[in-house]
Specification:
This is Alkaline phosphatase. This protein is of the alpha/beta class. 29% of the residues lie in helices and 14% in strands. It has two domains: 54-104 and 122-411 and 484-523, 3-Layer(aba) Sandwich (Alkaline Phosphatase, subunit A); 412-480, no CATH class.
């Protein structure tokens, strides 16, 4: 008889061999059917022109296209498949664009700040800026504040000079997070790095140096000229409802023992000004909570707090593969908690979620790549995708614009004519010209460069599968570098169709602001019409008084 399925029924009378995905792929019908299904979905796709109530921006720090492709395979292999046929949750988003992260050479057109521009194709031009290949501070300013800027500066226009405090004043540019809060929305930050890091820092800080985490990290001249450190600005610049990530040591006075590592002086607070920024933040927020471990986060009731700060490590949070699951929350858990708190606001919310794919410079994806440890980076990318999927379960594309992108890529690649189902961390099937094996994954530069006995060491298994294995690099550097190619932008929800073609990276902030009717697009005709429609559904005071008079008259007649 036919084999039984898990539900107690019987499976179709189809030979088991024909049920094999690999066998099915050998028939033209398999591919024709799949293509027709995708074509039907494309034909049914219609632009969603409604106003976005909520916006979630997922930023895979360092998550270039090669990282996404490798993460897709790794995700499938973690589930027991060959990997290549796997699909990331973010890849189901219907709209896509490419963002130009490379900063052009001098000689282009200067772009006005977000508050002074209009959404017009003429704005998509190059302009004077200092790097061909960017860092996370300059890119953060672009996709959050709507202007490209000089490398290593946060929340400042290109007129500001790196490390020069006095060039800060008058050159500040506000982020979309700040604008969303001014519009009455709740706002939040979730990151696997320190919350004072370049990517989240661009959401609230204006700093001539991305490295000014605390006052102890600032030169005396900058302090004397009146500049504030990034941690101080986190607490005092914008009223942020949810702050989740690492970075405890920058918030407390020098020598303050860390609650998790009280015996390790290297984890103590670092502030020289004696300020306890956590206490200051709590004292100014009604219904605020502070937590520093997973137990504390789990104990927070979503409907009992208006503000939540969770700082789970002295500096950056641990890689997912190194995370203590009993003490440190994952990016998925932090994202879920943030959304459950933020979505209580009837005006909507803006949430920025970052995972760094590399080890040394940004989110943990970014940090993994910088250290040349591809497995750490790809696991972070998989976790970010799981957070995207979780956000989709907690929100609706009818009122929530969700955008997934990267700030930049890395000199990370995989190839070598590997066969189907080959471990993404495995070896190429043939040896190189030096008669030595090599891994499919390689880096263009970084700490993986090695010469032993006149040549490079041969790669081998199972060593290459270890989470801390460093893939080989062509050029010796202390840390691997960013790369300058375009990055993908994926979007779903209201006005997601605005993400199309090849755009400058700063366009991301403008498209999100336009979708949610935030400044400088709050007075657009579509936004005014939406406000009129909303007001039209509400009873005016005069109408309410009339209804009350009618009810009283009816009661008197009935009496």
């Amino acid at each position: 008889g036919a084999p039984e399925d898990p539900q107690g029924g019987q499976c179709p009378c189809t030979p088991p061999a024909l049920l094999s995905p690999l066998d099915a792929e050998k028939t033209p019908g398999y591919w024709n059917k799949g293509a027709r299904r995708r074509l039907e979905l494309a034909l049914a796709l219609q632009p969603a022109a409604e106003q976005a109530k909520n916006i979630i921006l997922f930023m895979g720090d360092g998550m270039g296209l090669s990282t996404m492709s490798a993460a897709r395979i790794y995700k499938g292999q973690l589930s027991g498949g060959s990997g290549e046929e796997s699909v990331l949750a973010m890849e189901n988003f219907p709209h896509m664009a490419l963002a130009k992260v490379g900063m052009s050479v001098p000689g282009g057109t200067v772009l006005l700040p977000l508050s002074e521009t209009q959404l017009d194709p003429s704005c998509f031009q190059t302009y004077t800026i200092d790097r061909q290949v960017p860092d996370s501070a300059g890119t953060g300013t672009a996709y959050l504040c709507g202007v490209k800027a000089n490398a290593k500066t946060l929340g400042l226009s290109g007129a500001a000079v790196y490390g020069k405090c006095r060039t800060t004043f008058g050159n500040e540019v506000d982020s979309i997070l700040h604008r969303a809060r001014l519009a009455g929305k709740s706002v939040g930050i979730v990151t696997t790095t320190r919350v004072q890091h370049a990517s989240p820092g661009a959401a609230y800080a204006h700093s001539a140096s991305r490295s000014w985490y605390a006052d102890a990290n600032m030169p005396k001249e900058a302090l004397r000229d009146g500049c504030k450190d990034i941690a101080y600005q986190l607490v005092h610049n914008t009223d942020i409802n949810v702050i989740l990530g690492g970075g405890r040591m920058y918030m407390t006075p020098r020598w303050t023992p860390d609650p998790e590592y009280p015996e390790d002086p290297d984890q103590n607070g670092t502030r020289k000004d004696g300020r306890d920024l956590i206490s200051e933040w709590l004292s100014t927020k009604q219904g605020a909570r502070y937590v520093w471990d997973k137990k504390g986060l789990d104990a927070v009731e979503d409907d009992s707090v208006s503000h939540l700060m969770g700082l789970f490590e002295p500096k950056d949070m641990r890689y997912e593969l190194n995370r203590n699951t009993s003490t440190d929350p994952s990016i998925v858990e932090m994202t879920e908690k943030a959304i459950r708190i933020l979505r209580r606001n009837p005006n909507g919310f803006f949430l920025f979620v970052e995972d760094d794919c590399v080890a040394c410079a940004g989110g943990r994806i970014d940090h993994g790549h910088h250290s040349g440890r591809a497995k750490q980076a790809l696991m972070e990318a998989v976790m970010l995708d799981r957070a995207v999927a979780q956000a989709g379960e907690l929100t609706s594309p009818s009122d929530t614009l969700t955008v997934v992108t990267a700030d930049h890529s890395h000199v990370f690649t995989f190839g070598g004519n590997t066969p189907r189902g080959n471990s993404i961390f495995g070896l190429a099937p043939k040896k190189a010209k030096d008669k030595r094996a090599y891994t499919s994954i390689l880096y263009g530069n970084g700490p993986g460069y090695s010469i032993r006995e006149g040549g490079r060491p041969a790669a081998s298994l199972p060593a290459a599968e270890d989470k801390d294995y460093r893939q080989q690099a062509a050029v010796p550097l202390e840390t691997e570098t960013h790369s300058g190619e375009d990055v993908v932008v994926l979007a779903q929800g209201p006005m997601a169709h605005l993400f199309h073609g090849v755009q400058e990276q700063h366009y991301i902030a403008h498209a999100m602001a336009y979708a949610a009717c935030l400044e400088p697009y709050a007075t657009e005709p579509r936004c005014r019409a939406a406000r009129r429609a909303s007001h039209g559904t509400q009873c005016s005071p005069q109408t309410l008084l009339t209804l009350l008079a009618l009810c009283m008259a009816a009661l008197m007649v009935g009496g």
